[in-house]
Known about the structure:
five-stranded antiparallel sheet; globular; alpha+beta
Amino acid sequence: MNKLPSIRPPIEALWYQGASLGAIALTASAALAFAHQATGPAIAEAAARDTAASLSQVLPQGFADNNLLADAIDLPVDGASPLKVYRARRADTVQGVVFAVEAKGYGGTIQIMMGVDREGRVLGARVTRHTETPGLGDKIEIAKNPWIGDFAGKSLGSPPVARWAVKKDGGDFDQFAGATITPRAVVKAVRGGLELFANHRSAMLGEDKPTVAQQKELAP
């Protein structure tokens, strides 16, 4: 009986195929690394521009004269991830802060940037990301409805905390026809942001540490 011819590739072929695959993998890795290095700064710059734009929208014009992006702290909050807090200064004095809050809406998480002055009043609030229903829940966007502008000037005492709710729940804030869950979530998030500021006011404003003058007075 004739033997069937062997179909096993020679050792040289196996070595060549392995080397080729290794070279392809290295080339692909190098290309990805180069692309990351090339696009990384551009992506970071674009992200910084977006953040700066969000910060400017929640502060009155001329409220601060410093670069908020360069004047930020990471605030530990009850075991959660540190909260990025941007300090708005004028003449070297912190006049207010800006930070992000979020709440669960109808379509998912709603992210909001809000500014708060030294007295705990809302300077402004803007939704930066959401997945709410177009034509209904998306009225939380300032470009589509002025509703979110009503938070400016509000505080935990005005209105009273008990009335920080939509009118359907006995509060002072309007809801949207056919979409109550979305504005309810935003009101809850902004109220939570004011409570957060009240609980961490000294740290946010940088008043939890003695000033240079105070340090000199305390020095022996």
